[in-house]
Amino acid sequence: MQTALAAVGLPPALATIPQCRTPSSPVAEAKGGFRRTVPAEDEIFADGDRAGTFYKVVSGVVRTCKLLSDGRRQIDAFHLPGDIFGLEAGAEHRVNAEAVTEARLEVYRREPRALAGDDGTLAREIVASMLKGLERAQDHMMLLGRKSARERIATFLITFSRRTACTGTAMELPMSRTDMADHLGLTVESVSRAVTQLEREGLIALPPNRRMVVLRDKAALARSPSDFGSRLVL
Amino acid sequence: MQTALAAVGLPPALATIPQCRTPSSPVAEAKGGFRRTVPAEDEIFADGDRAGTFYKVVSGVVRTCKLLSDGRRQIDAFHLPGDIFGLEAGAEHRVNAEAVTEARLEVYRREPRALAGDDGTLAREIVASMLKGLERAQDHMMLLGRKSARERIATFLITFSRRTACTGTAMELPMSRTDMADHLGLTVESVSRAVTQLEREGLIALPPNRRMVVLRDKAALARSPSDFGSRLVL
DNA sequence: CGATTCCTTGAGTCCGTTCAAAGCCCGTGG
DNA sequence: CCACGGGCTTTGAACGGACTCAAGGAATCG
Question: Locate the HTH crp-type domain: which residues (chains A, B) (predicted)?
């Protein structure tokens, strides 16, 4: 247990965190329910809601986003199975969360009581999730601030394929082009054009079903303009 | 102690974290040193370095950034006194950290030993810092993905004035225009033009010393295109 | 007081947007 | 089984905001 926490670089004692009940049954329970199933496109919580709970994705895909008063939208992240979202520093949520596909969620209460039970697994997950989220946010800020439309699509496809542990070349994109656009800081039209361009270049193939993509050359997609640092591949 | 942690919405038991020594003396110590002073523009750590330590800003300003192989740079955050930076999910740093101004830092070892001593204050700070960092990252992604140059500058000035708890209207910007550009996803020229535009509009004033700004109308600066959600001001 | 560096300004270009329309899936119902 | 309808996606043409390239100005430092 200690080693696990140490692995994410934080004190082993963190493992004592509990306070959030460990789910027991795989299906929804009476009292409040530890699980929740949300239909595609339904809201999970809204910006401004009291942040009394947070969630872990069991299956499906969730998006968290912010809106400006004039309707502009920024999807800050897509959450895949295993990901934790909805944790806030303050008392209220600061993003909207919606199901992209039908999603099964594990719900955790944020309140201080109910410490008992947990063996620290969840605590470790939470910390790891926060750090991972920050890391993804940093990468995404680089994408939003400095990459071209073509690079954004290429990076997105590669990143998503890695996150879904997609082994082959075919991959399903659960979200619409509009969602991709609002995640990548582009318009739908630009997304479409960039995707088409990658297809013409032979890096990807686009089956009739537009939610599918075939990554024909992952290496080329990944090596658009490489990052410096750790995994620098020269 | 428990209440403090609960305030950030995480289990009180987190407070038991320690593992990172609490600094004792306000000046540099022999063994490894708990404090470190870095001259302006000097590197603190680089992308790819082993992430054996993390830091808290005592005074001065620090920037963390990523680079692409072709030189494009994205500053993901400026860290002000009290902020914690350099915590990583993995074994290596994934950003570069440099001092913007001369900076005094508190250095914490990440290793699992040395649990003793801390009363949980640091643990709470770490968690709060991670959540705060994530929140700022979300806001910044909205800025990078969806806001115009003028809006980016306005948002940046307001956000920075709030973070520095700048009470009056005059504010010092410790970073160069280039740093602002690389933080806001713009070019230096665009930053300069947008700043000039805000001045012409009377929202700000620009003293001869270009590192200074006078926020003549914070309300107008803040209300560019307002966020929805929690603090919605209609 | 000169030199360097940073910041600003100008002119022209380009990428992504906007506006508009057509194409394609897919579900529905005849 | 196929025609129809609606939403999503793609494509086209023109526009515009930020970028690039290039110079000029201002402040700071030696």
Answer: 147-219
